[in-house]
Amino acid sequence: MIHINSLCVVLLLVFTLGSCSENDVKNRTETEQYNATRQARVNHQQQTNNQVGFCTGNNGVAGVCMTRMACTRGGGTQLGFGGCGTYNICCDVPSTCNSNTPLKTKYISLQSPATIADRCTYTIQPYNANVCQLRFNFISVNLAPPTTTGTSPGSCDNQLLDINGMVLCGDLSDQHLYVPIDQTTGIMGSEFTLQILTQGVVSANTNKWNIQVTQLECPQTTTPQKNGFLTIPRQSTLQDLRKMFAPRSNDADMLAPPGCDQYYTQQTGSIRSFNYRQNGLGQYPQNLHYTICVKRGAGDSTLDLSAASGNFKMGFDNTMPAGEMAIDSYCHQTIPSPGQSNDYILVPPVNVYSGSALYDAVFFCGTSLDGHKVMTEGPFMIIFNSDDTLSGDESGFNLQYNVY
SS3 of 398, please? Predict the structure, then answer.
């Protein structure tokens, strides 16, 4: 038999627990809303009063936004506010050739010194353990162009930029490159070295550079530890602690997909080969192999590429029947032949529009895209390849792209 008093106690207990649960949910929701609002205010205040990134200070001198104390400690020169907000200033931190970058900072400015030796080397130190990529923006880089004569025409002999094994020269202004950082080696083992060779004849317009380096962080990935009976907790390594206490940054939109040396994130724009100049005055270096990627946004299904007349010249001197287009086997042979030009761009299966005719192709060389348009459904990428010989007109390309 159940007593009435006991039943009342049970009902009262159940009702009380239910009320507490509802209150807990309500309080927790209000707390989360308050924290979200507070964080939004903090973020807005930081964006307003503490801008980060690159800046232009007094007299048009390029610098990096940072606190006055950080600028002084790094031996920098204060250039005014430069749009860096209320509390930060624009600072010109000297990056000396043949040394480490002076500060472990997310943003680094490399500028050619007044006096240049035969070789200039910069060693970039990751500013925290989450850095997984470096983005190099070539604001202005002017070195001697590839040679046109000698034993190795088309090569970068006297003045060159060696970045992750890619050798470049000539006019590299307004270009960019991504370089991956090996996080498995730890922060001390993942330093990156950039080398600029400055030998030979120096003119008034060469041996000058202004390069902005942005250290990009990958999202942290942690594997949860499954605790069970008699489980011994895993000891944190020094690398784990560095990752744990490293400042967080949201670089997801800027990170390039794996394997991409260049990454274009806008829906429309232009893609140029290195050392491309209008009117066919430029020449891309030999022995270049790199991948260009274009961001695919939500709902995007097509990438089209087009070149105005005279804006696509990928050296070609191979035998080809009249009326044929320099595509596929004319550009790249499965079995190489002596004297066969092997300069091309590769675009995943595309439709080529040439007047009323429609072609399906992958490899393009010569002037095959001159005045034409191609469309692909992906992946949105272009692979560039140049061989070790100078054949025909190797001015390069200036492609207009559109993603939709």
Answer: strand
CB 288 within 8 A of CB 385: yes
Closest to 95 (Cα-Cα) out of 126, 132, 64: 64
Which 3 state secondary structure label does DSSP give 300?
A: coil
Domains 95-217 and 262-403 share a fold: yes
Return the SS3 of 205: coil
**Distance in angstroms between the alpha carbons of the first and the last residue of the chain:** 76
* Distance between CA atoms of residues 91 and 81, nearest Å: 9
Domain locations along the chain: 95-217, 262-403
- H helical segments located in 50-119: 68-73
Which CATH fold would you assign to the domain 262-403? Jelly Rolls (2.60.120)
| pLDDT mean across residues, the chain | 79
Q: Which of 13-17, 56-60, 341-345, 374-378 has the lowest mean pLDDT?
A: 13-17
Q: What angle do CA 90, 92, 94 make, to 5 degrees?
A: 160
Taken in order 131, 133, 139, 142, is the CA torsion positive or negative? positive
Q: How far apart are CA 171 and CA 274, in angstroms?
A: 7
DSSP string, 319-377: ---TT--SBGGGT--SS--TT----EEEEEEEEEEETTEEEEEEEE-BTTTBT-EEEE-
Contact 179, 163 (CB under 8 A): yes
The closest of 284, 317, 310 to 394, measured between CA atoms, is 284
Per-residue pLDDT of 225-247, as tens digits, reads 555 555 555 544 555 555 554 55
In 3D space, the residue among 164, 165, 178 whose CA is nearest the CA of residue 255 turns out to be 178
Tens-digit pLDDT profile for residues 290-315: 999 999 999 999 999 999 989 999 98
3-class DSSP state of 246: coil
Element holding 357 (H helix, E strand): strand 357-364
Q: What is the CATH number of domain 95-217?
A: 2.60.120.290
User: How far from the centroid of its chain's Cα atoms is residue 315's Cα?
Assistant: 28
Residue 66, CA distances (Å) to 81, 117, 298 in order = 10, 30, 35
Q: Distances in Å between the alpha carbon of 311 and those of 43, 121, 198?
A: 45, 34, 30
